[in-house]
């Protein structure tokens, strides 16, 4: 009977034991793929390509075929940890997801410096009072509701009504006693509402790893609520290249990534509005910033040209598009404003960061950087701003690290040298360590350098009790089940070398030395919690006095809020983007040499 009820494509039921969730797995599909389709999170830094080993699950019951990373299918295995992306059910089964995949996130950074924004919204409200409609024409020469509203607002520059607002107009006029509030953007009425309606705006920092949302009162510019979540696109890969490649491989892949980005914004809007007893229909304007890949994937723009040299965006100008055209719930005619891109993978999030930190860099030679999966760096020197994008990868945020995880309960976040060994601090205090997040990774490498556990080339030595040797593999044990491997060290070396080479190239182009840098501004979630002493010790940052380095939190989130609430600041963001001179690192003749020089721990 069960077989008769199934669809033409056979499927198996996968139950995730420690989540009390289920997913249907189509025959031939991996556990990772079925979980992603069902919205069940399993860490998978490489997007399920079988190369990172982070998506481990334990098969509790049922039959599965487990493929090795380098060979064909192995025998069916249960009661052991396997990679979800290489495991295909051949019957109904029950699996357990690793603790670091389901740990509760406590640091999806939404902070940043609190700011006061003089309200100057692109949306403005005008009260409209009409005489009730009667038989015949009124003095304006028309009895049509829309024509009368446009005539009443002609002095405000109005020439048209949004179609969806027009659909609301007749009922609203009559229900409200011929008195309403017309919400105007440019020459268009985008919404009609009662005079006592709430005028809200939503700002979104669409990051590669995390998404931060901010709900603001457009009339006052005041932030009402904020929320950070993980970007749902992480299921398709922790790094941009994995996602871009997934989108390139098929139109369906691009559509899935767009849907994931839309879902993130819809979820933020819903939860933020609920927190202030509002609804998404109260949102009149949305502002979004993100790197170029996030920008293109959200808009459904082609990304194939971003995936290969010379990495040309489809567009750099700022874009205004109806929220409903992206599937976003908001007021009937609300727009989404996307900040301008600079070039390559440097997008509107870096423009927002520059806008928010302008008071810090406008009078000093400054490095402005947002360290993350994709690290954007600008050198501000006099009137010039030169910008690069460094493919640092997710290692510094815990991705592509064997025991890596988000900044969640159970993550090792601090490591320090103590009595010749390494003492750890875990998020949650007394929680048992289940993995290690980005700040812990940097601290661990710094401690290994200090203790001589790694040599200058990054090779793990066997001269310390924390080092365990298994055949040709060496790892440094931090806690039961949590270790840093040689591959992890290499991933961090590549990330820090990419970032440091980016800084070196910017200085070289400007004819400057490290000591010419008067200030370093570090933005972003990772930049908030990174130990500066550790970053300096491993060579992630230039060897400068620590007082020259400012950690400013989520500056991109601050910048996108500024743009949401002020049309003047929106213009300022455009001028900053135009002022940036983008350099493609791969095109610089000395980049590879500089990169290789920065891999070691000198």
Structure characteristics:
six-stranded mixed β-sheet; alpha/beta; Nucleotidyltransferase, domain 5; Ubiquitin-like (UB roll)
Per the principal axes of the C-alpha atoms, what is the gross shape? globular
| CATH level 3 topology of the domain at 200-338 | Nucleotidyltransferase, domain 5
Write the CATH homologous superfamily of the domain at 200-338. Answer: Domain of unknown function (DUF4445)
Calculate the mean pLDDT score and round it.
89
Number of alpha- plus pi-helical segments? 17
Q: How many extended strands? A: 29
* Adjacency order of strands in the biggest sheet: 14-13-12-15-17-16
Q: So, CATH architecture of the domain at 200-338? A: 2-Layer Sandwich
Range of strand content: 25-35%
Share in helix: 25-40%
> Span between N and C termini?
68 Å
Multimerization state: single chain
CATH class wording of the domain at 200-338: Alpha Beta
Largest sheet: 6 strands, mixed
Structural class: alpha/beta
Low-confidence segments: 1-8, 70-78
Tell me the radius of gyration: 27 Å
């Amino acid at each position: 009977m069960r077989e008769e009820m199934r669809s033409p494509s056979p499927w198996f039921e996968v139950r995730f034991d420690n989540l009390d969730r289920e997913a249907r797995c189509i025959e031939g599909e991996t556990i990772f793929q079925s979980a992603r389709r069902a919205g069940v999170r399993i860490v998978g830094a490489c997007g399920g390509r079988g190369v990172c080993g982070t998506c481990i699950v334990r098969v509790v019951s049922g039959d599965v075929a487990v493929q090795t990373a380098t060979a064909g299918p192995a025998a069916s295995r249960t009661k052991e940890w396997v990679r979800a992306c290489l495991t295909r059910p051949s019957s109904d089964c029950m699996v357990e997801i690793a603790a670091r995949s389901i740990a509760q996130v406590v640091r999806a950074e939404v902070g940043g410096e609190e700011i006061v924004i003089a309200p100057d919204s692109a949306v403005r409200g005008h009260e409209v009072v009409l005489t009730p409609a009667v038989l015949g024409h009124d003095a304006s020469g028309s009895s049509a509701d829309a024509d009368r509203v446009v005539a009443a607002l002609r002095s405000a520059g109005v020439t048209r009504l949004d179609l969806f607002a027009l659909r609301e107009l007749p009922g609203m006029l009559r229900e409200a006693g011929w008195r309403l509030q017309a919400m105007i953007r440019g020459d268009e009425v985008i919404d009609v509402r009662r005079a006592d309606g709430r005028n809200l705006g939503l700002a979104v920092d669409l990051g590669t790893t995390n998404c931060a949302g901010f709900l603001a009162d457009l009339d006052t510019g005041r932030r009402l609520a904020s929320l950070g979540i993980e970007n749902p696109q992480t299921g398709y890969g922790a790094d941009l290249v994995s996602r871009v490649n997934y989108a390139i491989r098929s139109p369906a892949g691009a559509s899935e990534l767009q849907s994931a980005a839309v879902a993130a914004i819809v979820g933020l809007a819903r939860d933020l509005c609920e927190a202030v007893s509002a609804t998404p229909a109260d949102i009149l304007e949305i502002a979004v910033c993100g790197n170029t890949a996030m920008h293109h994937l959200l808009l459904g723009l082609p990304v194939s040209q971003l995936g290969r040299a010379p990495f040309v965006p489809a567009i750099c100008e700022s874009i205004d598009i109806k929220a409903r055209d992206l599937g976003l719930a908001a007021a009937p005619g609300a727009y989404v404003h996307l900040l301008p891109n600079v070039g390559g993978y440097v997008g509107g999030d870096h423009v927002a960061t520059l806008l928010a930190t302008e008071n810090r860099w406008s009078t000093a030679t400054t490095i402005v950087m947002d360290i993350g999966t994709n690290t954007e760096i600008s050198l501000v020197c006099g009137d010039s701003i030169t910008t690069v994008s460094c493919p640092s990868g997710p290692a510094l945020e815990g991705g592509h690290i064997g025991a890596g995880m988000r900044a969640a309960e159970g993550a090792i976040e601090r490591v320090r040298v103590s009595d010749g060994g390494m003492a750890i601090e875990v998020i949650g205090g007394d929680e048992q360590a289940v993995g290690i997040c980005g700040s812990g990774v940097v601290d661990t490498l710094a401690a290994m350098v200090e203790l001589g556990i790694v040599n200058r080339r990054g090779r793990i030595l066997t001269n310390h009790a924390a080092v365990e040797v298994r055949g040709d593999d060496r790892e440094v044990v931090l806690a039961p089940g949590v270790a840093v491997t040689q591959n992890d060290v290499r991933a961090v070396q590549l990330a820090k070398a990419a970032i440091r080479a980016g800084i070196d190239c910017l200085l070289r182009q400007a004819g400057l030395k490290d000591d010419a840098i008067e200030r370093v501004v570090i933005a972003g979630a990772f930049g908030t919690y990174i130990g500066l002493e550790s970053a300096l010790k491993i060579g992630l940052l230039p060897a400068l006095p620590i007082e020259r380095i400012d950690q400013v939190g989520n500056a991109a989130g601050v910048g996108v809020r500024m743009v949401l609430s002020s049309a003047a600041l929106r213009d300022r963001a455009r001028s900053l983007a135009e002022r940036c001179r983008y350099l493609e690192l791969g095109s610089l003749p000395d980049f590879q040499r500089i990169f290789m020089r920065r891999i070691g721990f000198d």
